[in-house]
Design goal:
By secondary structure, the chain is an alpha+beta fold. It contains 7 helices and 18 strands.
Length: 355
């Protein structure tokens, strides 16, 4: 009976799950206004808690995932809320069946606030997440659910070098690695032109599954990818794996989303140059460059510079003409005393004396 009542039994026969993030209209409106006015802080004010739908291979809705987090939370004197720290803010994710509520979750995960997108050389910069069985019955953050902890996900020292990596263990102080999650990409990640695959292998390198960030398949998905941060993932797992490992792999997928794909859309349009009669500035994010935990966006920009160049040209020409005219007026005044020298021609009177 104990196994039948285990909420993780819903993952026993899972081999493939498709995870789709819901689009928040408030986030879209806030981010669009922020891009148009060139005010990044305005986009953070519209940041909402994420929601995901998890489908089976045949398209049926199997689970729902809801984020709980504070908009302006603080731990001591350090901010940890969505507005200031997104996408590295403190949060909890609750996974539950669509006919139930988060109070009947089969699992939940807790992630503390971290300094993301920087070198993962110390604990404050290394991403981590704890996975728990069942619903969050204790205080937020899993403090009262230590007995239900099933996995601990940790970003290793230097983050895997040029290829992002996560280590998954049963406990935080455990030296035995349950499995590793590592990207197939080298240095370049998070572009929209192709799929991004993260291989899941055990400590001996044996294949256990993979996490795939899917590229857009049609114009509708392309528009959503360009204008929002809603993404689509696919999780492949071996059917014979333990349900605890499948739950940890699902949690790893969400951590990867927050680390690399939970940011603004790939296209930003700054309309403020229109006020000066210039073209709007359009920027397109091609990909992210990754090195030892550091994430640097690589983008290209066009437009928005014509008005600045026109204003600078007349300002440079005016001061150049004035000193030239003054120099020309002073030159003839200095030559006048030199022209008086030929008047001293008195030796010509001596010529008739010689005759």
């Amino acid at each position: 009976m104990a196994e039948e009542d285990d909420p993780l039994d819903a993952l026993l026969e899972t081999e493939k799950l498709v995870i789709k993030q819901e689009v928040s209209l408030l986030e879209v409106a806030a981010q669009t206004a922020a891009n148009a006015l060139d005010l990044d802080a305005l986009g953070n004010l519209g940041e909402t808690a994420n929601r995901y739908d998890i489908f089976t291979d045949n398209g049926g809705l199997q689970f729902k995932v809801v984020e709980t987090s504070e908009a302006c939370g603080c731990t001591g004197c350090c901010p940890t809320g969505r507005i200031c720290c997104n996408p590295n803010h403190a949060l909890q994710l609750h996974v539950f069946a669509p006919e139930h509520s988060p109070k009947d979750a089969i699992m939940f995960v807790d992630r503390p606030c971290k300094c993301g997108q920087c070198c993962s050389c110390c604990s404050i910069c290394q991403q981590e997440m704890r996975v728990y069985r069942g619903a969050d019955d204790g205080p937020p953050g899993g403090d009262g659910d230590a007995e239900s902890l099933i996995a601990y996900i940790h970003q290793p020292f230097m983050g895997g070098g040029f290829s992002p990596k996560l280590e998954v263990m049963e406990r935080e102080d455990s030296e035995d690695i349950m499995f590793n999650v590592q990207s197939q990409a080298f240095c370049c990640i998070a572009g929209i032109c192709c799929d991004h695959t993260f291989n899941v292998t055990d400590s001996e390198g044996e294949y256990m599954g993979k996490i795939v960030k899917e590229s857009p398949e049609n114009l509708g998905e392309l528009a959503k990818e360009l204008g929002t941060d809603a993404d689509r993932f696919t999780l492949y797992v071996k059917s014979e794996l333990d349900k605890e490992k499948k739950a940890a792999m699902l949690a790893s997928l969400h951590l990867i989303d927050y680390m690399f794909f939970e940011n603004e859309g790939a296209v930003n349009a700054d309309l403020t140059p229109l006020a000066n009669g210039s073209c709007p500035e359009i920027s397109f994010k091609c990909c992210d460059c990754y090195c030892c935990g550091c994430v640097c966006p690589c983008s290209c920009t066009c437009g928005g510079d014509d008005g600045d160049n026109d204003e600078d040209e007349p300002a440079e020409e005016a001061p150049e003409e004035e000193p030239v005219e003054e120099a020309e007026e002073e030159e003839p005044e200095e030559e006048e005393p030199e022209e008086e020298e030929p008047e001293e021609e008195e030796p010509e009177e001596e010529e008739p004396e010689e005759e």
